[in-house]
Amino acid sequence: MHLELTPEQTTWQANAVAFAGDRVAAEAARIDELGEFPTTLVREAASLGYLGLLVPREFGGRALDHVSYTLAIEAVARASATVAVILAVHNSLVSDVIARVGTVSQQQQWLHRLASGETLGAFALSEADAGTDAANQQTIATRLDGGYRISGRKVWVANGAVAGVALVFAATNPGARGRGVSAFLVPLDRRGVRRDPGVDSLGVRGLGCVDLVLDDVEVTDAERLGDENAGFTIARHALESGRIAIAAQALGVGQAALDEALGHARTRQTFGRPIAQYQAIQWFLADMATELEAARLLTLKAAVAADGKEPWGAEAAMAKLAASEAAHHAADKAMQILASAGYRRGSTVERLFRDARATEIYQGTSEVQRMIIAASVFGSA
């Protein structure tokens, strides 16, 4: 097994670390406090190529391998989970999907705009009764001559407040569940589209989450992505890629928590010596570091599998499960190490604690990941 990064991967990691340290870290607390979408920062990210990380070069993208992409998302998340998720949704769940399954016309229409940051992408799958049970789509796409009329309500649409296009999933054969769902590229300035303010969230604030209301929105056949009734497969593959990015985001949050805990342990003194000299603290830090490094290796393994174009659903699920739980544990132990200094509102660890929790929920809860992994285990037994 070869574990060394290539020079190109090392360069992208270093670039992302620099961007995160120079620009993102300084804005992270403000983004969280205000809960506002960081438009200026996302524009800066676009100018550096972060909105086209997986887009082919012929469409103005960076055409990164998944390992480089994963390293970049982790580095950004170490500074701000919110900015990392904005990039992950745009790249994994929209741009990469169009690059992989879109028609030439759809690629020409959208990929240049997405890669340059002219347009931001959003992913609209979840509904009030279609979260874990995503096949239970109540948004309906009714067949018209040459197109469809879509009606329904999507929830928790990240990037939705500012996005120019959304990948929307709707039932084209109601009652058939996953066998009757289609995917559509819906311009969000289309008549009948409304963005309702989403609920305030505990962590990862500032994602621009909205409820997307579609009231008899008409789309053409050319705006359907993939074959009719093949949308659920498209969503599943998109989420498999997205879970690797969320694993990377979780690693960044967990590593930031470890950094905060380590810095505090070195400087905080009790009974005349730094608390880093106490075995209890050392064991907390050792467990945090071990869990994060193990999750990091699983995440890189999943990224390599994605680059190999082989099925990687189980690897992505393992990566997300391990990384999100390692991040949760790291943030929890960091809170314990900092004690009142970490528990206060506005501390970095308090923010990381809230951000880490989200990684165990979105793009498939930890329970869903265990279901996917178990199915793989039973299938290979």
Give an overview in words.
Strand 9 and strand 10 form a beta hairpin. The protein starts with 6 loop residues before the first helix and ends with a helix. 54% of the residues lie in helices and 15% in strands. By secondary structure, the protein is of the alpha+beta class. The chain contains eleven helices and ten strands. It is globular and about 80 Å long. The strands form three sheets. A four-stranded mixed beta sheet has the order 1-4-5-8.
Rg, please? 21 Å
SSE string: HHHHHEEEEEEEEHEEHHHHH
Strand arrangement, largest sheet? 1-4-5-8
Tally the beta strands. 10
Strand content: 5-15%
Based on secondary structure, the structural category is alpha+beta
Can you lay out the helices and strands and say which pair or pack?
Elements (H helix, E strand, L loop, with lengths): L6 H28 L4 H9 L18 H14 L1 H21 L2 H13 L4 E4 L15 E5 L2 E11 L7 E7 L9 E7 L5 E5 L12 E11 L3 E2 L5 H37 L1 E2 L2 E2 L4 H29 L5 H26 L1 H4 L4 H11 L7 H15 L1
Parallel strand pairs: 1-4
Antiparallel strand pairs: 2-3, 3-7, 4-5, 5-8, 6-7, 9-10
Helix pairs in contact: 1-3, 3-4, 3-6, 4-5, 4-6, 6-7, 6-8, 6-10, 7-8, 8-10, 8-11
What's the quick description here?
With 381 residues, the chain is an alpha+beta fold.
